[in-house]
Amino acid sequence: MQGLIDEVPQHVLRIQVRLFACRERLVAATDDEALHDLRIALRQLRSLLRPLSSIAACADLQQRAAQLGRLTGPLRDLEVLQRYLQQQELHSAAQLRQPLLEKGYAELLASAPLTQLLRALDEWPQQWREAASSGQLHGLDKLIRKRLRKDRKRLAQALLDPAHDRHRLRLLAKRLRYAAEAYPQLAELPKRVRLQLKQAQSALGDWHDHWQWLLRAEAEADLQPCVPAWRAALQRAEEQADSALLGLTAGFASSD
């Protein structure tokens, strides 16, 4: 129990260092992966804190991370699209979106959610110590196991729904996968099921990208040349996602 109480702030500190580094990489514009890495760090922070949401200090920090995640989502979508256009040598369409990207980076760096999260991370270790000294962390391992079982049950039930929503399945799969990575000893998920989760999330992510691009093409005329390829890719991604979800459903059934 004490080990877990010590491990959580150590993990938060590692994520905090990565977030600071990502911010500086964005400021310096040194590479093309800074925003992506920032979002991964945010996802890991949220996954670490979500099972602890009944603890006030964790709920507040998790909420701030979620706010920044929502802010950076559309910018990351634009970033991925712009790189695709460059790779396809659709230079005019790519160049048209470059100023939007640069404006988005500047707005992110000046945003209240980023500033507030980094400030909250500085203050959080003291809040965690106060929670520990007041007994709020009693039964921490049981609390985490309970939340992870709930996440697993929610995903398993969604998989069995004949009218399942791929958007919801994608979010549920991501939530369970990253929570299991945050707490591997408490997740009670076989290695095979973790791999199936990763495969399902990847297939659903590919499907989501093409679905979203097709929606954009309805309003952005310069994307129309991409539509036939995107429709074909969407169909392939749907098939791959459905196959991965079937495997995950079977994996859950055999591990119960």
Give descriptors for this structure:
mainly alpha, 256 residues, 9 helices, Four Helix Bundle (Hemerythrin (Met), subunit A), single chain, 2 domains
Overview of the structural elements:
With 256 residues, the protein is mostly helical. The protein folds into 2 domains: 1-138, Four Helix Bundle (Hemerythrin (Met), subunit A) (Up-down Bundle); 141-256, no CATH class. It is 82% helix and 0% strand. The chain has helices at 2-28, 34-49, 56-87, 91-109, 112-133, 140-159, 166-182, 191-219, 227-255. The longest helix has 32 residues, at 56-87. The protein is flat and about 60 Å long. The model has no long low-confidence stretch (mean pLDDT 93).
Number of contiguous helices = 9
Give the number of domains: 2
Rg over CA atoms, rounded to whole Å, is 20 Å
Q: Examine the secondary-structure arrangement and name the CATH architecture of the largest domain.
A: Up-down Bundle
Low-confidence stretches: none
Can you summarize the main beta sheet?
none
What kind of assembly state do the chains in view correspond to?
single chain
Q: H/E order of the elements?
A: HHHHHHHHH
Structural class: mainly alpha
Calculate the mean pLDDT score and round it: 93
